[in-house]
Amino acid sequence: MSIIAPSMLSADFSRLAEEIADVESKGADWLHIDVMDGHFVPNLTFGAPIVGAIRPHSKLIFDVHLMISNPDQYINDYVRAGADRITVHAEACVHLHRVLHMIREQGLPAGVALNPGTPLSAIEEVVDDLDLVLIMTVNPGFGGQKFIHSALSKIARLKEMLVQRGRSDVLIQVDGGVNTQTAAWVREAGAGVLVAGSAVFNESDRAAAIAALRPGGA
Ligand code: DX5
Ligand code: ZN
């Protein structure tokens, strides 16, 4: 199983609806939406009004990655804007268990993201309360950064943890520095959902770029 989620962060922001329609027609499975607040991460992108504005233009699964402090205060805004799934950072949640249940109570799958410096033990107590784990393969904040190799063993250990806990249904997502080469590595390690910003949006042939990230694609 391999889900490809182009990250809107690398799209042309002056033509968002067209950019999204383009990757949708070229084989994207999900649209990854990177929300940054200039506080949890050193960059600022867009908020719920933009998500709501693009919603009518796409049937893609809106995969909202909240790189923001106090995400609990904003979950409902993103649900109303049309998010299909929401992922919060473990590092940004004092009450992670509560936030995951807030997301699930809205009927959405709940994800937890872990920065490269955060150990898997951060999710040990909420394995039964989540639907997706996002292993960051760069420090979040910017597109086009270099893939951090130590994440490969982390993905493999996460997979093992999920099997041991009877949660092999939980999706393993990777985000950051995914390209045709690293896509094969992360898939081998056990990831099923691949986010790719620059490797899709910066390519002129986006159908080929998306296909190249799938098994046997490169
Ligand atoms: C990083 C974001 C990523 C980013 C990935 O902070 O969460 O989703 O867009 O960009 P690439 O694929 O270019 O590394
Ligand atoms: Zn992201």
From TrEMBL:
One of its GO terms (molecular function) is metal ion binding. It is an enzyme of class 5 (isomerase). Keywords: Carbohydrate metabolism, Cobalt, Isomerase, Manganese, Metal-binding, Zinc. Binds 1 divalent metal cation per subunit. GO terms for biological process: pentose catabolic process; pentose-phosphate shunt. It catalyses: D-ribulose 5-phosphate = D-xylulose 5-phosphate. CDD domains: RPE. A divalent metal cation binds at residues 32, 34, 65, 175. Its cofactor is a divalent metal cation; Fe(2+); Co(2+); Mn(2+). It comes from the Bacteria. Catalyzes the reversible epimerization of D-ribulose 5-phosphate to D-xylulose 5-phosphate. Belongs to the ribulose-phosphate 3-epimerase family. This is Ribulose-phosphate 3-epimerase. The gene is rpe.
